[in-house]
Design a protein that fits this description.
Number of strands: 13
Number of helices: 5
Strand order of the largest sheet: 7-8-9-10-11-12-13
Strand content: 25-35%
Shape: globular
Order of helices and strands: EEEEHEHEEEEEHEHEHE
Structural class: alpha/beta
Distance between the termini: 17 Å
Helix content: 10-25%
Length: 209
């Protein structure tokens, strides 16, 4: 279930599943492979939308799923309108042979990520396994309502939920696997370790970077 998953750096995720290569928020990609079938971007902050890194993963056939504040930037890279899907919270979509849900991602007690910005996370269903990339969020009602098998959850604090807040919420959600992200650029390895150590025994915490 977690084979084929790479955490590139911080909150940048690569999924290689069922012949598909999917990137979330490519950032600080070490080597240009231009191998992406799909790129999902959660919002426009520099550590989530990095044009230099998008160029390292995209090719002429790459399909993009982005928030509205990124539509013009993606198209300015030469991506055709047919390969750009602009999404908003609470939507469900199907691309080719897989479906996904768009989940609102925002802060509840700070102003870095306002709900009104319509920034998001994604729950992708690949062959019946649901992978949830939370994006930059605090613990919200929308977050807690998600059912998933694998969750990529921010743990670095400052701009998102803290490691202890994340662990407590994930314990209630009960995914099979929980992978900490959003530390390195913000936060540290200690946040990832604290998160994993705070999980219940029936959830497998996996640190991948």
């Amino acid at each position: 279930m977690i084979s084929g998953i790479t955490i590139n750096y911080h909150a940048s995720i690569k999924l290689e599943k069922h012949g598909k290569i999917i990137y979330f928020d490519p950032f600080k990609i070490k080597e240009a492979k231009n191998d992406a079938d799909y790129v999902f971007v959660t919002h426009s902050h520099y550590d989530h939308y990095s044009e230099d890194d998008v160029k390292k993963v995209m090719n002429d056939n790459t399909k993009f799923v982005v928030t509205s504040d990124l539509e013009s930037k993606i198209k300015a890279l030469g991506v055709s309108s047919d390969n750009v899907l602009v999404v908003y919270p609470n939507e469900k979509h199907t691309i080719d042979d897989f479906s996904f849900e768009v989940i609102s991602a925002y802060n509840t007690n700070k102003a870095y990520h306002k709900k009104s910005y319509n920034w998001v996370g994604y729950v992708i269903d690949l062959d019946g396994v649901k992978y949830y990339d939370v994006g930059d969020s605090d613990v919200t009602d929308e977050f807690k309502s998600v059912s998933c098998d694998v969750i990529f959850v921010p743990v670095g604090g400052t701009y998102t939920m803290t490691d202890s807040e994340a662990a407590s919420a994930v314990n209630e959600m009960k995914p099979k696997y929980a992978i900490p992200v959003h530390y390195g650029e913000v936060g540290s390895n200690a946040n990832a370790e604290n998160f994993v150590n705070g999980l219940n025994d029936d959830i497998t915490g996996v640190i991948l970077n």
